[in-house]
Design goal:
This protein is of the alpha+beta class and 161 residues long. 40% of the residues lie in helices and 12% in strands. It starts with 20 loop residues before the first helix and ends with a strand.
């Protein structure tokens, strides 16, 4: 039997050929992590904006249902609740009403000290249209400071007396 002796050869690289590769790998990892963090921050900002808009829509729904509830209680005087019926909803204008219940509703809707108020609702025309057979359409308008255009919420119902 012959015994072969194995010799291993070590390939020697020139000094400095691998120098700095670990640093480059670390920098690439940091860059990827930074982009991921920026993406998460952008996603969070979008989520906050969406939640804010949903909150405003929920408040608008609450206020629309509030005035409709007042109409149901006073269902024999529903035509007196009309507000800016001939105007275009959400235009800049006046929200004066002859009915004191509508006036108090508008003041609660746009009161800056009220935490539940809609932002920018004071300068925009809210609209209550009372049609035939007491079909009521309530349109609420608001404009948050971050938005360029006004938003609106419309509720239509029939109040039977």
């Amino acid at each position: 039997m012959s015994t072969q002796k194995r010799t291993s050869r070590t390939v020697r690289r020139q000094p400095g050929a691998q120098r700095g590769v670990m640093l480059v790998e670390a920098l690439v990892a940091i860059a990827i992590f930074s982009f991921a963090v920026l993406g998460i921050v952008g996603l969070q900002a979008t989520a906050i904006r969406t939640v804010r808009d949903a909150d405003y829509r929920a408040k608008a729904s609450f206020f629309a249902n509030q005035i409709v509830g007042r109409m149901w209680v006073d269902r024999f005087n529903v035509p007196t609740y009309a507000l800016n019926a001939a105007a275009t909803a959400c235009d800049d204008g006046d929200n004066t009403a002859a009915n004191p219940l509508v006036t108090s509703w508008i003041s609660g809707l746009s009161d800056a000290t009220n935490q539940g108020a809609l932002p920018g609702a004071a300068g925009l025309q809210q609209q209550i249209i009372v049609g035939p057979n007491n079909v009521v359409t309530v349109t609420l308008c608001w404009k948050s400071p971050q938005d360029d255009a006004a938003h609106n919420f419309t509720l239509t119902t029939q109040i039977q007396g």
